[in-house]
Write a structure and sequence with these properties.
Number of helices: 1
Radius of gyration: 17 Å
Shape: globular
Number of strands: 19
Helix content: under 10%
Strand content: over 45%
Largest sheet: 5 strands, mixed
């Protein structure tokens, strides 16, 4: 894999995806967790290496379902893939995208480095993309149901004060959006219960990190894990 730039667990916690940034590959592994008397034992199995013409320095990953993976490519776009079940071999398999956000919404998706998705009551996905070097987060309404998946709408969501936004995450309850603001050395929190737009200021800044990168909410949205790219800390 080489430089592993991101990692994400599927919603059922049975598959793990790892982005091989420089090798232009994504590795998917199966996960089993056995709870023994001495604590949990984690077993990784059924390796599936994937390649695609759409991979161009894959940087961010997000499972929107147990077999659907979004990939943010630093020098490409954000394709959506169906990930097949493991076959028992470890031969690289080539993926074809179900959808490419940069094709449906040209001009919005540029240098994407991170992606997050959250299901909505209408059955669509609310997809957020960190566009690293255009310094904005864009929002996309995506419908993966039916015979022809598509992106229904897209627009800039956050921009003011962003300086290389390197990670984005929805809270599980949908109340918060967190953005790693690389050169501001903090994580910005935005409250989705109020109107947001490119000029919106954050509701809070989380400090104590050098170069925040990947992040995920845990514990029912009350805590957040942040990977610091400038130090060996989470």
């Amino acid at each position: 894999l080489g430089r592993a730039e991101d990692v994400h667990l599927s919603p059922d916690n049975r598959r793990l995806a790892i982005a091989g940034h420089l090798s232009n590959r994504v590795l998917v592994l199966g996960i089993d967790i056995d709870w023994g008397a001495k604590g949990p034992h984690v077993r990784l199995h059924s390796p599936q290496p994937f390649v695609s013409h759409e991979f161009s320095y894959p940087h961010g990953l997000f499972w929107s379902g147990d077999d659907t993976l979004l990939v943010a490519n630093r020098q490409g776009g954000v394709p959506v893939f169906h990930i097949p079940p493991p076959t028992g071999g470890a031969t690289p398999c080539e993926l074809q995208p179900l959808l490419r956000l940069e094709t449906v919404h040209p001009g919005l998706v540029e240098t994407p480095g991170s992606v997050s998705a959250r299901p909505m009551a209408c059955g669509c996905l609310d997809v957020l993309v960190c566009n690293n070097y255009t310094h904005q987060v864009t929002q996309h309404l995506v419908d993966l149901g039916g015979a022809r998946p598509g992106a229904l709408a897209g627009s800039p969501l956050l921009a003011r004060g962003l300086d290389i936004p390197d990670g984005v995450a929805h809270s599980p309850d949908g109340r918060w959006i967190a953005v790693s603001n690389h050169n501001e050395h903090c994580v910005r929190l935005y409250d989705t219960s109020r109107p947001l737009g490119p000029d919106a200021e954050p509701d809070a800044r989380l400090l104590g990190v050098d170069y925040p990168h990947g992040l995920r909410f845990v514990e029912n949205s009350r805590r957040i894990l942040v990977a610091d790219a400038g130090a060996p800390f989470v």
